[in-house]
Amino acid sequence: MTTQDAATPSWHPERLAARLPHLRRRALLTQATRAFFTARGYTEVETPYAVPAPGEEVHLAAFKTTKVAPDGTAQNLWLHTSPEFAMKKLLAGGAGDIFQIARVWRNGEASATHAPEFSMLEWYRADADQAGLINEAFAFLRAVLPPVVTCRGVTTRLDHFETLSIAEAFHRHLGLDVLASVNDAARLAADASTPLRQGETWEDLFFRLMLGHIEPHLGHDYPTFITGWPAPLAALARRDKADPRIAERFELYVCGLELANAFTELTDAAEQRARFTADRARRHALTGTADWPLDEDFLAAVAGLPPCAGIALGFDRLVMLATSAPRIADVLWL
After folding, report:
1. Taking the complete model, does pTM exceed 0.90, yes or no?
2. Which residue in 121, 29, 137, 44 sits closest to 84, CA to CA?
3. Are 191 and 206 in contact (CB under 8 A)?
4. How far apart are CA 130 and CA 231, in angstroms?
């Protein structure tokens, strides 16, 4: 962004005109998305944006607001970081296969591919497994995007995809067994021949290696679904029955962009409570506060959640792929 761009409001005719082709493509992409899921029997839903508990991701910061009742009593609410909790409550209530294109908020995020307020496409299918969800996500890409997409200097063909496990990716690009070091930061640092930074946890080092050595190779010639995430890094996913060290989670990369994150959903309320308790303790250690109460309503819903799988896809990044826009700001109306 130039100095002139920064000083000119985003609604200025010249700046808006530069974005209009992308924005009109965005509108068509929204229509195509709704048509894809409606044709597959999904119901579009809408859930509240201001909620008592915005999520339990340790490293996501939420925007806080206050709800004032007619009698003057006040309640703290947060703008959700994902509609996941609300949509799973609907699943537990019997809503069936559902999708939503929602606005979500994550405080402190801003870059060429991040915005503090953005759009997320999220969908859930009952009785789906990881393989089925991967195939559906790929079918969605092929339905709404051109056969070849280029974004940020990377070109990807959508005629086939690669499935790669975390273990395979770390072995391929770093020559190490990442699952052998889970929760042992010193061992992972030694295996990766990298110094451990002061205060760095195993999770911190995992993502430093992931960002620096693994992600740059993902989703280039064709989409990459990366599976088999270490269980401590998938707080809402079911553990793999064949290998409890990993969870049934995958991420999707296209043109080098992380596009989606998906789980075969955890339906054990007691295990979910234990994971949330551990995550809240970690967040308290990092920030000094627990911020919001535990979402007991969600935990009650988990107990009644049918077997299902769900995926969250960054809709603005999808528009970037469709338009070859280099920045997320180029595909936002304002």
Report:
1. yes
2. 121
3. no
4. 15
Q: Which residues contact 195 (CB under 8 A, 6 or more apart)?
A: 189
Contacts 24+ apart (CB under 8 A), 112-118: 112/152, 112/326, 112/327, 112/328, 112/329, 113/257, 113/317, 113/320, 113/327, 113/328, 114/328, 115/316, 115/328, 115/329, 115/332, 116/63, 118/314, 118/315, 118/316, 118/328
Residue ranges of the chain whose pLDDT lies below 70: 1-6, 289-290
**Two tokens at 61?**
């910061």
Residues near 297 by beta carbon (within 8 Å), at least 6 away in sequence: 89
Q: Residue 59: what pLDDT?
A: 84
Residue 290 pLDDT: 64
Check residue 282 and give its pLDDT. Answer: 84
CA–CA distance, 247 with 17 (Å, rounded to integer): 45
The domains found in the chain, sorted by start residue, are 3-49+80-161+222-331 (3.30.930.10)
Residue 1 pLDDT: 54
3-state helix, strand, coil in the chain (%, to 5): 40, 25, 35
Q: How many CB atoms lie within 10 A of CB 58?
A: 17
Q: In what order do the strands lie in the sheet with 224-227?
A: 43-44, 98-105, 117-126, 308-314, 257-264, 249-254, 224-227, 162-165
Query: What are the start-end ranges of the E strands in 87-134?
Result: 98-105, 117-126
